[in-house]
Amino acid sequence: MVLIDTISMTSLLRLRGSSSLILTTILLLLTTTTQISTAQLTSAISTQEWPTFLYPTEYGNVTFVPTLARDTGDLIFHFEAPAVNSWAAVGVGAEMRGSLIFTFYRNLKGSGVTLCSRTTDSNVEPAHIPNSGCALISQEGVQNGIVSRTVTEYENNAAVGIVTSDYIIANVRCKNLVKTATSSPVTITPSTNKTGVEYQYSKPYTLPQLDPQSTAQPFIFALGPTDRRIRSNNKGVPLRRHVMFGHFRMDVSKAVVETTSDVPMNELAAIGTWTNRHATREGGPTQRDRGGWEGTVHASLMASAIVILFPVGVIFLRLLDMVKPHAYLQAIGCVFVVAGAGVGVYAGMFYNQTRRVNTHHQILGFIVVGLTLIQFCLGLTHHHFFAKKGLKSLMGRIHVPLGSVILLAGAANGFVGFKLTSSTYHYIIYAVMVIFVAVGLTVALFWIKVVRKREMRRWEDRREAERGFEEGKVMGAGDVEGGQVDARGGDVRDGA
Q1: Mean pLDDT value across residues 318-331
Q2: Which one of 97, 140, 227, 283 has the fewest CB atoms closer than 10 angstroms to its CB?
Q3: CA–CA distance, 220 with 287 (Å, rounded to integer)
Q4: Residue 495 lies in a domain
Q5: What is the pLDDT of residues 148-158, one digit of tens each?
């Protein structure tokens, strides 16, 4: 082709007759072939140089490759993220507030992927945006779902080995997200049809528009926790807080095509072949989240009170007859319960499920807290009354069964709470704790009942023996006194 291109057109025109026509035809064909080959080569090079954000995390690589179509204003992108995380997301915007966040997680079968467009007013769980115009691309040569990949494992940004792991793979088309000469921002109003959607964004939302000339378009990304699993086709499935998040900027001007037909879709959908280009991560090292410390503190305080402090307090009173340790433990437990409830309310503000304080776990929790405070007051009043008069009171009769109700209701509400967080691992740990304490407390109380019953029998037997001894002693003393009287009487009579 290079030789043909260097042939002088002047020399060709000098040829005469049919040979000139033949050579001219051959030259045109070769020139056309050269142009097609050059176009294909340019397309391949453009795909390889496409703006790409790729960041290796401890869980696996996060990859985002966008394409902006100038004619329709569509955003078409390829996304990869480790499937060990319960969910993964990338968003258009500099922060969570107001960003259009594309969230991905396993579908109900577990082998596919669910796409959910979300947004939020602040740094809380984003809610689903219905009718966002975003959908997974379904065409030949394009794969979406959970795919096993062999990748290089990194530690402190250094390659340490090669591992095979599952990845979330998604190829998405979003309408009206790119500025065009005739486009205008689209505002979505809340939908009243919530079929298949648990939590929708309740306010009108204006979709962002990417500037095709921007050399520093802001984006965000995040990965969900690894100790939970999501398998759902629901667009508004509850999400637990991310364990890792970050910000990056990208030169999207290099990702612009004139028409959607110019998008090399098969090349764009390639898996695991990307390197970071024209994208810069912001804010230093990717930020590790606090991991939702509020929920951890809430669960720890409530479980410590209900499963540990209160049962141990019962053992001190029933088994060891120690009133003060019982009272101290109950007081500490009450403080834990009140503090745990406060932290729980605060933690609930970050999630769509619990923001309105109307879940079964929250309602039952408030009831348990109220009964615990009443229980503590009844115990103090009963103790004061008993210490002063030495008599049992009505408060004492209520105090004992109410304590059992609190323990049972509080322990059951713990299971409801862990189910609310979708944490199977913590649910199992809590179940083991509850079973261990329940069995131990039941055995201890049964043993106390048996031992005290035996002691009561022994005490009654001892009392019977003592009573019999006293009666025998009294009867013996009476006989002696009677004999002395008779003797004296006999003496008198005899003397008479």
Answers
A1: 84
A2: 140
A3: 12
A4: no
A5: 877 666 666 66
